[in-house]
Amino acid sequence: MTEESAALYVVPTPLGNLADLTRRAEAILGSVPWVAAEDTRHSAPLLKQLGSRARTLPAHQHNEHEAAARIVERLQAGESVALISDAGTPGISDPGARIVAAVRAAGGRVVPLPGPCAATTALSASGLLDEHFLFYGFLPAKAGQRRQALEALRAEACALVFYEAPHRVLDTVGDLASVFGERTLVIARELTKMFESIHACPLAEALDWLKADPNRQRGEFVLMVSGAPAGADDGEALRVLKLLLDDGLPVKQASKLAAAITGAAKNDLYEQALLLRQD
Ligand code: SAM
Fold this sequence. Notes:
Shape: elongated
Distance between the termini: 56 Å
CATH superfamily of the largest domain: Tetrapyrrole methylase, N-terminal domain
Strand content: 15-25%
CATH class of the largest domain: Alpha Beta
Largest sheet: 5 strands, parallel
CATH architecture of the largest domain: 3-Layer(aba) Sandwich
Bound molecules: S-adenosylmethionine
Structural class: alpha/beta
CATH topology of the largest domain: Cobalt-precorrin-4 Transmethylase, domain 1
Oligomer: single chain
């Protein structure tokens, strides 16, 4: 790269609430000569609102190689480019990774901006207490492949984070329930939008909850499953815990008894009990 100052800025955009655009994102989008957008028509109103006079170039999943080459050319000519996707952070279950890789391979400067991302937004309000999480993004669309992917995650002791579209949410939640047994599921829907909802329940009850109201199946979803409890049959421990809670025992006593009966860790069960009681 010839120009030290030119950079590829990776710019997160709002998931739904325009006020979530950071001041830094606003400044970059308002000042760069080029914006590479997943869908230039979709992003036009945002750029117009910011008074951006940037020229746009398409950078979607079907032209990423070509877009990367064009972006590298712009940077080599000393012109900065901001990379945006339709919503959230580029490169996170969105196009962008190939462009970043190409710019880095060409010795270009890549500047990431922090900002909206559905996975971290959902996790922050999930109430899941797992110390670690595994971001999976979208599962395979085909049932057999999806089941296989889930089986491979069954023993992971961290919270599992999935993205899902409304037309597949029932199938996916059904598969989550049959593969992971009675863990907790947190369903985060329409984050930052008018009908935002965050619901935690035992996985075994999630399908019924979704089916009880068609509105619960609409919009955009982040699905989060609590991690596999260490050293215990998680299904059995949660089943016992739930029975005790349903019988009216207080959270502390129910988790202590369930731990004594099943050998699962008392603290893990206490955390699960708190989540179950929220609902
Ligand atoms: N790059 C984006 C990010 O940083 O989160 C993700 C883009 S991916 C193509 C779109 C998926 O993200 C949706 O299908 C949904 O799973 C999730 N998502 C995006 N916006 C959301 C929202 N407002 N509420 C819940 N999930 C959302």
